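PROTOCOL LOG
Step 1. Enter all chains and additional molecules of the complex.
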Amino acid sequence: MSTARLRKRPTQDDVARAAGVSQTVVSLVLNDRSLVTISPQTKQRVLAAIDELGYVTDGSARSLRTRKTLIVASLIPDITNPFYPAFERGIQDVADAHGYDLIAYNTDGLRDKELRCLRSVQRARVDGIIATPFQLTAEDFSPLAESGVPVVVFGELASEPANRPFDSIFVNDAAAAGELVAYLLDRDYLPLGMVADAAAHLRREGRTTAYQRVLAERVLPQAELLARGGDPTEAGGYIAMHKLLAGSPLPRAVFAANDMMAMGAMVAIREAGLRVPEDIAVAGFDDIPVARLLNPPLTTVAQFPEHLGHRAAEMLFARLNGSVTGEGRRVEMPYELKVRASA
Amino acid sequence: MSTARLRKRPTQDDVARAAGVSQTVVSLVLNDRSLVTISPQTKQRVLAAIDELGYVTDGSARSLRTRKTLIVASLIPDITNPFYPAFERGIQDVADAHGYDLIAYNTDGLRDKELRCLRSVQRARVDGIIATPFQLTAEDFSPLAESGVPVVVFGELASEPANRPFDSIFVNDAAAAGELVAYLLDRDYLPLGMVADAAAHLRREGRTTAYQRVLAERVLPQAELLARGGDPTEAGGYIAMHKLLAGSPLPRAVFAANDMMAMGAMVAIREAGLRVPEDIAVAGFDDIPVARLLNPPLTTVAQFPEHLGHRAAEMLFARLNGSVTGEGRRVEMPYELKVRASA
DNA sequence: CTGTTAGCGCATTCAG
DNA sequence: CTGAATGCGCTAACAG
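Step 2. Run joint prediction.
Step 3. Record the structure below.
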């Protein structure tokens, strides 16, 4: 490998020389501007030379000149939560169709990692970004927005100014969670507990407050049974459920802040020698792809992550190609209660 | 947004002007070369100006100059298979530690998409790539390798020349699958079926042939019960299992080519009114994060994807920083049989 | 229709 | 210790 000669990659100049034309002509052939026409035979000569030399455009040079990188970025908390791969896939497919590559950042929902990503995004000069931030505020995005980089935010931000300089897409978590909780109560799952992660992000708090709100509305003979624990992961759900199982009264059902936590809760329940849903029913949130494959299949609220990513990317590209301008749009996406066997 | 003035991003020239120094000095301060020393006070002035103007280095320009993009690429079939997010996460964390960003490509295991990605990689001038190809041959990587871009391949390639110009990392699928099949037979799960995807890639064929090999070795009173169907996804597993359920004899257990297919198979089995593992036991391959959370928990072979990604990235960066040179290394990674309740 | 020319923003010689 | 000058490879005016 060290002995192998590194063939210096050919430039447009090399191609031009080989084809006996000027470098400009090579560029014109490559970019096929309709402003000027190239004679078919020179075009052929150029293409032949390109093929022969194995020329391929230098992205850095082109970017420096055009101020476009043909890269978009996506900022998500953790690709390991199955919700996000689906989301990313939705973005990726749209980006692909537009000839764009996708840089992915995992932030773990930590503010400093989120900020680092934003800075990295500025350096890399990506043409646009789709962000799923947990801690960032609208102001954090100002530098990007001001320098003309379109931003699409998934979800709500910590501080939402009236005139946001970016688009956003969201699902009404509070309404969705409220509907799910109401359903569980209608099924007489009392007392109804909830497991949530330790950090109270605005993002998922809609779900928690919805639980509390609906409980309060119905004036039920039960105290709030809210256990928090760890990350919004399977491990966190396991920990939180443990707390609930150690307390009294035992819940007849639990609502988990997301499907991963619901899975952790199910494990904890079984380890305690109890059955789902006979002893304790379980419901989640997200409808990640495996939710319906579980045993029992998980009752949850579908957010259609792939569709979300798809739509978010479409909004981004609408800005990138200039077909949409003006102030930020807010697009609300639908959710759907998925009643399955787990609750 | 359209009305907002797009503040043109400041350049080193602007910073230099503001700080009353030359552009060179700005560059020197930024890159902190030890060759020349900058007086602390000018350094302060420059840093102050940078902060004030909100200067951030232009990645394209720097790349053009340094021939480095600080980006690595990862090529995987489908981020939607939980094996890969974990793999990517492993890569991502190492890349992050080296100050690198990660571009992810999904190829769906299709040759033309894989090739497109490779071309894109060349354009984008990423500094290195970790590929999990299904169809590409060693030759397809030659242009990259020749132009000095380090390549790490996960798995085996369709054609393996003696002196590969790239590193590779792999798990001995054949041995792992053989061990699992042997285990299943030891438990007297007879007849033992297998569900696999329709396309016979070299990549997963090791698992299929291992099944056939061990069966043959033991000279068992059973015919081969191999059903293929669809993609290597849950849907594919469901389809393939359906075929097995429609045939005769029914298998007493099935080995699925990967965990996603195993999950699909489990659904099919339950829909047929049968139980896992009482009527039909199920085993998978990969040990994706949800495998142990299933009900019953899935017996499978662990490949430790996050660890694989981590290691692959380390190999890549060893090339990038020049601490490793010479011909391609082949690194075999461990697997582990995970016996759980499903088989 | 084709070629000449001029930078994009930065890192890096080489002189002061 | 600092500044002036150069060119990375490319696109896009502009002139022939």
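Step 4. Note key features.
Residues 21-25, 28, 36-39, 42, 61, 63-67 of chain B lie near DNA strand D (CB under 10 Å from a C1').
The radius of gyration of chain B is 26 Å.
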